Amino acid sequence: MKVKFFQRVNTRISLLPMSILLVILIAGGIGFYFFGYARSLQDFHKGYFITLASEKKTAFDSWFAYHKSDLDGLSSLGILKDNASILAGAQPGVKLKRKMAEQINHSQALISKLLEDKTLSGRYKMLSVISKDGRVISSSRQDILNADWSGRDFFKQKTVDLKSPVVIGFYGADGADYGIEMLSPVFAGSEQIAFIHAVLPVKELAGFLKTEKSFYRTGKIDVTDTDGNLLLVKDGAPQRKIRYNIPKGGHDISGYRDDIFFYAVDLEQAPLRLVGTADKSDVTRPFNILLIGYCSLVGAVLLMTIIQNSYLAQRIITKPIYRLTNAVKSFSFGDLNVDMGKGYKGELTELKKSIEDMFEDIKAREESLRENIRGREKTRLKSMFFSKMSREFREPLNNIIGKVKSVLDGETDPSRKAIIDDIIGAAQNTLRMMDDLIELSRLEEGTFSMSPEKFNMCEMVKEVEDAARNLIGSKEIELIADCQDVLADKAVYADRHRVKQILENFTTNAIKTTEAGTVTILSSSIVKDGVEYMEVSVADTGAGIEPEMLEHIFEELSEQQASIGLAIAKKAADALGGKIDVESAAGKGSVFTVTIPLKAIIYH
User: Fold this and answer.
1) CA dist list (Å): 371 to 5, 360, 557
2) What pTM did the predictor assign?
3) CATH number for the domain formed by residue range(s) 42-48+205-283
4) What angle do CA 390, 393, 397 make, to 5 degrees?
5) Segment among 142-146, 149-153, 437-441, 473-477 with least mean pLDDT
């Protein structure tokens, strides 16, 4: 009851208020980030762009003012006005007298020469003189002479009551003709007789948009029309059509839309806008420091809550009681080296001492019992081990000695090759049993390990078959090995060494218990409960196994065990997530079958 009481007190006076404060701080941070972050920064970028745009605006307006003045001077030239009057007065399609035709050709040649010389300066891409009815009466480009431009938008909108040069916009697409269009009226006295149409290159203007060093990495200034359509960037003509979502009204506009901060200013000498932009992530970078500081504050409050909670009732009563409870539970589950820690006070110290004394008494009794069992088991295992080793080594060693004596006695019988094969088989059998002894010792030491890899099952069956033929020697045994075709194209993922060890132990046991007959190795693929397995069977027609021995053949160092290798095979199959089945009848033979997943589940 005391524990629950102190827990309630700690929750009400410490944990609950701090948790409420923490929730408020977190909610405030989230609200600021998602709802007020961008709004609070709308004017932060404005100062930088005002300075930059003012510099660019001055350069652009000066450039346009210069060319307006230049075009105005060109329009005022007497040679241009006089000859333009002659050309504008000529009616298209009307047959002229020879003298009049020569005069018109002469006037057109004079103006064309004047316009061509002007374009050679590089300040203009094209200059043309257009009559009031829309005919191109002279041009620096001969291919557009006498063209009818009366249907073009700029002619309809800009030529009425035009008093001075004006900027129309941008001419052409994004190709070589891309440039800035300007119109300048040509007067003869007070009468307007024609217009000069000029196309200026954009290279110099694009250069004005470049900045040596920008405060923002994503900061840039572009040129748009009053509707927001992108017309010019620092590299020249834009690569694709873009329309900025910026309000049309107002002279200087700043704001935030579509994750972009912008500032727009209109030019004085042209119906164009300079638009400075920067990405939100770039503008808000300085304010991330404030956000980090805010998060640090929230973290500090959280840390204070944790510290305060851990140093009140939990440290005084709750945690010591929990430690004692967990220590008793751990000891009951078999952990004999339980550490109950320190920090107990009052009656809890006495309780801890009583529990420790109980633990020591139980451990002493258990250790005594373990020593007693361990001693008796060690004696029994040693006896069984050496007895088994004597039986296992006697027969192969006698066989090797007998065969070697036959050869040394000088026998010249043609069957000597078979005898030598028997010697090799017996020697290999001995080495295999030695390997089994090593594996058994590993089992005892707990170092039985698995190393899964991909391999081909049919290739392994062939290796096992070749090794088995060497073991047969002079025995009249027919060896049959077959691998299902489906396994030839499938990779098996398991411990290759362990799988091969299982099959070799099966075949060794089959050959050892069969004097004459058949040993068959069959490999196939099966599916059980949606899982694909490989199933390998080794069958023999040998002595078989007595029914009372079947349940003991896989026990380590069992008196009824047929082979040490079978115990190792059982361990390996279990570790690979598989199983071994045995069918045998005394005097008729045995069938050992191992079933392992194609993608083995390794149990360490």
Assistant:
1) 48, 16, 21
2) 0.45
3) 3.30.450
4) 130
5) 437-441
